[in-house]
Amino acid sequence: MRNASTKQKVMDASGYLFFTKGYHGTSVRDIAGRAKVNVSLISYHFKNKQGLLEFLMVEYFEPYIELLEEYAQKEDSKESFYQLIELIIQYKKKHYQFTCFVHRELTLDNVLVREMMVTYLAKEKYILYRLFKQCLHGSGIKGTQLQYLFLQFKGMLMTPFMMPYDMRDQNVLDHSDNYFSEQYSQTIIRWFDHLIESHKISYKKEGII
Amino acid sequence: MRNASTKQKVMDASGYLFFTKGYHGTSVRDIAGRAKVNVSLISYHFKNKQGLLEFLMVEYFEPYIELLEEYAQKEDSKESFYQLIELIIQYKKKHYQFTCFVHRELTLDNVLVREMMVTYLAKEKYILYRLFKQCLHGSGIKGTQLQYLFLQFKGMLMTPFMMPYDMRDQNVLDHSDNYFSEQYSQTIIRWFDHLIESHKISYKKEGII
DNA sequence: AAAGTGACGAGAGAATGTTGCAGGAATCCC
DNA sequence: GGGATTCCTGCAACATTCTCTCGTCACTTT
Questions:
Q1: DSSP A107
Q2: The HTH tetR-type domain covers which part of the protein (chains A, B) (predicted)?
């Protein structure tokens, strides 16, 4: 009873503080203070401040990658990919604070963070890129442009979670319920459809000329 | 001779380190070490670590706001607004590292940073929103949707400068010359045109029905 | 009763931001 | 030329804060 409670309290507190103040901006004292537990408990449960971060990372990424891998094994259809997009947005929204934190920390040249995420990120990129490519296989988009579009696609997956602090109030309205995930992933999907369609058209035109 | 050199060296070093490691992640000793100057020189020139940050902020934002104010006084035309968009992207790209830093730091709940930026941000929002609204005045887009689109617009202005560390290599290719600024602002402008056009069409359709 | 576990308090050891002081080297002013 | 000023260095000290470890206590389990 007691352990689950305190350990979870530490995790919650650190999650929130990392989100608002960043990893370097929060001390273990801050965390312990917010969780209302003793400072040494953090070392006890997670060994380090870094160990705590690592624990949170694994807990966050493990189900996420699982989700991706599940869809990587399904039959390749556009609908399946579109469904995955919505599920990704849903997952990120569900763990909104930590998602923000991860994306922000990824813009830093932090060896520690990157080292513990590199396998997850590689898997994510591999799976997403494969599905992305197969979805656009019908329209003959070439190599360099495909990569650029993929970059743009990944940008769309993270943009809502990199909003500045002073814009969040308005954004939180959208984040409040499941409405946002649906709407926003629809935006991405619409962009996708538009992409396929417009390229087909320009392809046809070139054929005529 | 000497003073300009060392002061500038400190500014360069701190700019780079804030960019890669964040404000809290860099110590004054790191900065002094990288600039190859004495630690006490930072206090000498800028009083504080915070003073150094403040100095950099002012130096970055002053010309930026000046640019915005210049265009706020011009006659209201779509072309003028489009031109401003490209100039903004150009400015941000020119000061790429510090732009990234500012955008990242804005996602934090950092009182110090926010306090010294609040006036700049207010001015920026005021001017941009006015121009944005006037540009979309022709098409009858309503209040709430207008604000949502404005949010999206501001998101587009900062997305390229929030790229994760491991995606930058590919991005730097685009950032290498003036090509990027032109291309990317064209992307925004096209989105804008599409916005006006599609809304006009749906408006007409409703009229017919 | 013994062993194990979760929690606490104190504190060591290191890092950080900041300040102070003695001096060197260049520049400016008379 | 000589003195004053300015810019910079080097070293040291300071208080503060940080992370992390240690010994101990209370409670539970065996």
A1: T
A2: 4-64
Q: Are residues A37 and A74 in the same domain?
A: no
Identify which of A22, A20, A8, A102 has the alpha carbon closest to the alpha carbon of residue A61: A102
Question: Do the Cβ atoms of A93 and A163 come closer than 8 Å?
Answer: no
Q: Which parts of chain B have pLDDT scores under 50?
A: 1-2, 208-209
Place of tokens 């954004």: A171
Nucleotide at minimal C1' distance from the A39 CA: C8
Q: Show which residues on chain B lie within 8 Å of chain A, measured between beta carbons.
A: 20-22, 24-25, 100, 103-104, 106-110, 114, 121, 147, 151, 154-155, 159, 162-167, 170-171
Report CA(B24)–C1'(D18) in Å, whole number: 13
Q: Which domain, by its residues, includes A85?
A: 57-208
Distance separating alpha carbons of residues B92 and A155, to the nearest angstrom: 18
The CATH number of the domain holding residue B2 is 1.10.10.60
Same domain? A68 vs A37: no
Strand, coil or helix: B143: helix
If asked whether residues A112 and A17 sit together in one domain, one would say no
